[in-house]
Specification:
- The protein is an alpha/beta fold and 377 residues long.
- The protein is built from 15 helices and 15 strands.
- Helix 3 crosses helix 5 and helix 8 packs parallel to helix 10.
């Protein structure tokens, strides 16, 4: 009943397909791509707006380079992705076209979503494709990405995309049945959790690391993705994409995989972007009074409450706010650079102009651009 009630209003769905679902140690599994593509075409024809986040480009291209297992360097990974991405898209395109559907390729880096203008441009592109009935297929741009601008894994990317397009559902297809209360490979009595109301530290502790040589994530990255998307009010599910008809069965309301229920008090789009998408560039340590005013009274951060500043950030960058124990309790967008804050910290807002010769605002971080960390974060 819970699933049928939650799925009833769903119109826009992000489907994340992991490497373990559509690849083998030898490369791309064309039969599996075809099977899933047919199922997604059926969903699209039945009225759902479908956005796909697909891994698999590196695995699809590594064979041409003679690579066994994961590429051991970023240049090799980039080269494998350059070979495999076109192969991956060609596989999707051929199946979708055979069913009378069209697809479009979108390659993203973390910088594309960290910058607010580029974030909105990406959103506009995807929304236009959906308006014209075209299925976007998104992947990280592994041909140019480096550690500083990578998402880390496509589970993380899929959660960001789900909030970007304001999806109703994030569906993560994996090579496991869902979240178990303990590792099923080690404990035969492990039980599958069919519904999770809230992702607590105890739930996160049930997740392990990566289990395949082709993927970069594991159950823990999927739980973190679910945590991010449910905070935005998006239902999230993890199902086994290797099992025939699981995708169809899930949308029929059957008890497949693990469903994570959305929060009853979701973040706004902008605050979700600040909390989960914009990359942190520095740290501001504040005194106990400022911490209480921000966390408990909904106040902005003023220069008088700042003790120390770390990181070479600029105006408009994202920073985390920490208490005297240097534990993060909030994050937000700063109105001043690190060097400017070092000059005005500990002073009143009325003194900013006298010290700097100018003033952008009274607040270092305005409450409208600030997100408080919750205990379960």
């Amino acid at each position: 009943m819970i699933r049928q009630r939650l799925l009833a209003p769903v119109k826009r769905v992000v489907i994340k397909i992991g490497s373990g679902v559509i690849t083998t140690p030898e490369g791309l599994n064309f039969d599996q791509v075809q099977h899933l593509s047919v199922a997604m075409c059926q969903l699209h024809k039945s009225g759902y707006e479908v956005i796909v986040v697909s891994s698999g480009s590196v695995a699809a291209g590594k064979g041409d380079l003679g690579i066994v297992g994961r590429p051991h360097s970023i240049p090799l990974k980039q080269a494998a992705a350059a070979i495999g991405q076109s192969r991956l898209m060609r596989s999707y395109r051929s199946v979708f076209r055979s069913k009378g559907e069209n697809v479009a390729q979108i390659l993203l880096t973390r910088d594309d979503l960290s910058n607010r203008r580029r974030y909105l441009n990406a959103r506009n592109t995807i929304m236009t494709l959906l308006e014209y009935g075209i299925v976007p297929i998104i992947n990280e741009n592994d041909t140019v990405v480096v550690d500083e601008i990578r998402f880390g894994d496509n589970d993380n990317l899929s959660a960001m995309v789900a909030s970007l397009v304001e999806a109703n559902l994030l569906l993560i297809l994996s090579d496991v049945d869902g979240l178990f209360d303990k590792d099923p490979s080690k404990h035969p009595d492990a039980s599958l959790l069919h519904e999770v109301e809230q992702i607590t530290p105890a739930i996160e502790a049930m997740a392990g690391g990566a289990t395949t040589i082709t993927g970069t994530g594991g159950m823990i990255t999927k739980i973190k993705a679910a945590k991010r998307s449910t905070r935005y009010g998006i239902s999230t599910a993890i199902i086994n994409g290797l099992k025939p008809d699981n995708l169809t069965r899930f949308f029929a309301g059957e008890d497949v995989g693990t469903l994570f229920l959305p929060t009853t008090s979701p973040m706004t789009s902008k605050k979700h972007w600040i909390a989960f998408t914009k990359k942190l560039r520095g740290k501001i340590v504040v005194d106990a009074g400022a911490c209480h005013a921000i966390r408990d009274e909904g106040k902005s951060l003023l220069p008088s409450g700042i003790i120390a500043v770390e990181g070479g950030f600029d105006r408009g960058d994202s920073v985390c706010l920490c208490d005297t124990n240097k534990e993060e309790f909030a994050r937000g967008i700063t109105n001043y650079t690190q060097s400017e804050i070092n000059l005005i910290r500990g002073h009143k807002s009325s003194e900013i102009t006298a010290i700097l010769g100018y003033k952008y605002s009274d607040e270092i971080v305005h409450r409208d651009n600030l997100v408080i960390a919750r205990e379960d974060d």
